[in-house]
């Protein structure tokens, strides 16, 4: 194993690529369900399906994209061509919110769903190749954590800024046109950041080139699926992804219907993301001391505790609720950093066959992430539907029943607590990290 220290001239542009990824994940994740139910009058059950069904295709598409990415690496020596194709995702991002004015209800849901299918495919072209980069490099256990630490700080900042900027740009009580304007502005930022990220990948490959797979070793999807450690890690991460996307989708509802002020959505997002930004460097240090697995389990347990406090609702008082959301944010930082730096550990442990299959590994991984992105809002929409939540159009103020209000609160709090408990049980099946973190890194500075 080669233990090199990656230069900032490569780390910074690589991490900057996550700005575009953060916008794609955040804006639809937080606002698309609300956009459907409270702007386009789509019933919650239909809205949930409109977000779920397009992502079912990702189960097939992402691993397929991973194989193409591996083939590009073998044939061209890099994965950047596929990343360039993926940058076009900005067009689908704008289309999701540029719904024709005469479409409402089911027809509007179909429009959004089709745009989401196209966006997911394009985004996977960028994301799969981007996340395969740590496994392509000749770096060790701790340097993978450092690399993903830079990336996680940037993506968390972008999630914070996008989550705060989106409602500000859209304005108060926004209509479809306001959302379209918001998508256009953020889409330009997304595209520029993704291009910078491609430059960062090129510099990393130059700074720490990995070892090519030996002749006779073939990569492929089955290599990833047969890896017991990878299956355990992915199963837990899928459950975490469902939980986190549910929480993000539920924030606007919790702010408006539980706390009584839709403007508090921005406060909740900031209270969630700001601690995540600040604590990511600390989690890198914690992982160096305790290991990634133990750090991740501690973060998951903290998330459960914070969710149970939030279940008290508005009666607990806004300061306590914001503090509980901040705990979720601290936990979120670790739940993003640790798993993403553990995937290349798994690939490295698989030897040359794993190295030849890095794209397939990350394809399966991002398929799980995308599935979580779909199932999270769907699970919350199912909670709303079970509680009798009534959809509305922009400008309407519908009075919700006590059952609907209970669904808003407990779907945001108790359901995530249960899901995260399941993630903890699944995560404990991962054993690769038991001794790996005790390896002593030999820092060799690479000149710019």
Feature tags:
448 residues, mainly alpha, Growth Hormone, Chain: A, 17 helices, globular, disordered C terminus
Structural commentary:
Helices cover 78% and strands 0% of the residues. It is mostly helical. It has a single domain, classed as Growth Hormone, Chain: A (Up-down Bundle). Helix 2 (44-56) runs antiparallel to helix 15. The radius of gyration is 21 Å and the shape is globular. It starts with 7 loop residues before the first helix and ends in a 12-residue tail after the last helix. The model is unreliable at 213-218 and 439-448 (pLDDT under 50). Pfam families: MFS_2. It is found in: Cell membrane.
Compact summary:
Keywords: Membrane, Sugar transport, Transmembrane, Transmembrane helix, Transport. With about 450 residues, the chain is mainly alpha-helical. It has a single domain (about 10-210, about 215-435), classed as Growth Hormone, Chain: A (Up-down Bundle).
How widely separated are the two ends?
Answer: 21 Å
- Give start-end ranges of low-pLDDT stretches: 213-218, 439-448
Briefly, what CATH class?
Mainly Alpha
Mean pLDDT: 84
Largest sheet: none
Q: Percent helix among the residues?
A: over 70%
CATH architecture: Up-down Bundle
- If you consult CATH, what is the topology? Growth Hormone, Chain: A
How many beta-strand elements? 0
Number of helices, counting only DSSP H or I runs of 4 residues or more: 17
Task: Please give the oligomerization state of what you see.
Answer: single chain
Our Rg estimate from Cα atoms comes to 21 Å
